[in-house]
Amino acid sequence: MFRLALVLGLLAAIGPFAIDMYLPAMPGIADDLDATASGTQFTLTAFFLAFGITQLFYGPWADQAGRKRPLYLGLSVFALASLGCALAPSLPVLVACRMAQGMGGAVVMVIPRAVVRDLHTGPRATRMMAAVMLVISVSPMLAPLAGSLAMQVTGWRGIFAILAGVAVLGLALAARALPETLPEARRVPMNLASLGRGLRRLLGDPGFMGLTFIGGFGMASFFVFIASASFVYVEQFGLSPTGFSLAFALNAVGFFSASQIAGPLAERIGIYRVITLGVAVFLTCASITTALVSMGQGSLPVIIAGLLLGNAGLGLVVPTTSVMALDAHGAIAGLAASLGGTLQMVTGGVMIIVSGLFFDGTALPMLGVILSCAATCAVLAALVLPRLARRVAY
Fold first, then answer.
1. Which of 28, 229, 272, 331 is the most exposed place for a label (fewest CB within 10 A)?
2. DSSP string covering 55-118, please?
3. Is residue 62 within 8 Å of 187, Cβ to Cβ?
4. Which long-range contacts (CB under 8 A, 24 or more apart) does 346-349 make?
5. DSSP string covering 27-44
């Protein structure tokens, strides 16, 4: 299992790498392209929206053609778009290329989740997804640092050239090391009628929608942090790009450390109790951190500690909701993974836009939006999880 999880994790990490690696360069991009902070943040919004919406294409195609062929197309588009980002002469061109990059990279959000559902359900799927996320953890821990080092040698444009190379390596990995997990006998024809039936089934399932949005608002909080952190840490607290990279990596440690105990903990106390615990930790930490900052106690260590602990709660929430949302929909796992990913990424993009409306370069607006995401997760969990826990013995 670990070998396959390693392959899936490396492929899935390409998308986060495209986000995390250029974060230290965002203030420099704004200066170089004569753009505002909110305008530069739109390069993230465009990526997230394209990354989310395009999954609706890859999912049904993966149910029809298998898991590998969509990977080849998506990673090829990602590589070409990365080169376009490296050569972009203006912010609008960079935004357009980032959108194309998101359209290609969306495939790495769909296929790993569908492959996990092809092979496992319940706690076993959670354990495998946690192993995948352990591999993905290299992105927030190393990608910003790699980006800051690349900036010193090539400037921010070299970061996107490196991402093009990463996509080429991903193509080679998909061709040589990823087995096809969807045999032809289980493939579903892709046509408007079957697509409509599948979408109606998923959109009409309160369990799927509830779990998707619990995980979605949890991920959205992290996206808001990603969009704002470089400006907060560099401009408010005066960190260098390398210092920001180290602080960002520390904030991610909580998430990926907790994700590794989600599977074993689910086997001990039940998967829905794990989600409830994670949401409670997330909401508590977000509330305390926001309150401290609003009272003038928002030092950098306080913010880093609060986000680290809050993200630990998310480490229990995101992998479990991701696999359980697909649990009842194995026959259309690709479509379910793509719709779930689309809804989550669009939620993240919308919350970045909301954050940008209030962002003033300081930590409080960022933390306020994160707290709103945590509160929404808590409300959804209270409405959805008790019903699911009574219906399914996980």
1. 331
2. HHHHHHHHHHH-SHHHHHHHHHHHHHHHHHHHH--SHHHHHHHHHHHHHHHTHHHHHHHHHHHH
3. no
4. 346/48, 346/49, 346/52, 346/53, 347/213, 347/216, 347/217, 347/219, 347/220, 348/48, 348/52, 348/216, 348/219, 348/220, 348/222, 348/223, 348/224, 349/45, 349/48, 349/49, 349/52, 349/223
5. HHHHHHTT--HHHHHHHH
Per-residue tens of pLDDT for the chain, all 394 residues: 667 878 888 888 888 888 888 888 888 888 899 888 778 888 888 898 898 888 888 888 888 888 889 999 999 999 999 999 999 999 999 999 999 999 999 998 888 878 887 777 666 776 777 677 666 666 666 788 788 888 888 888 999 999 999 999 999 988 888 888 888 878 877 777 778 888 899 999 998 999 999 999 998 998 888 878 878 888 788 888 778 878 877 877 888 788 778 778 878 888 888 999 999 999 999 999 999 999 989 899 999 999 999 999 998 998 888 878 877 777 777 788 788 888 988 898 889 888 888 888 788 999 999 999 999 999 999 999 888 766 655 5
- For residue 146, how many other CB atoms are within 10 A of its CB? 18
- Among candidates 109, 236, 115, which has minimal Cα distance to 182? 115
3-state secondary structure of 240: coil
- Written as six digits, the tokens of 157 are 């444009």
Task: Please tell me the distance from the alpha carbon of residue 174 to that of residue 38, in angstroms, as a whole number.
Answer: 36
Q: Within a 10 A sphere around the Cβ of 196, how many other Cβ atoms? A: 10
The Cα–Cα gap between 274 and 236 comes to 36
For the four alpha carbons of 144, 229, 259 and 79, in that order, the dihedral sign comes to negative
What pTM, to 2 d.p., does this model score?
A: 0.75
Measured CA to CA, the distance from residue 229 to residue 235 in angstroms comes to 10
Describe the crossing of helices 122-136 and 271-294 by its angle, rounded to 10 degrees: 40
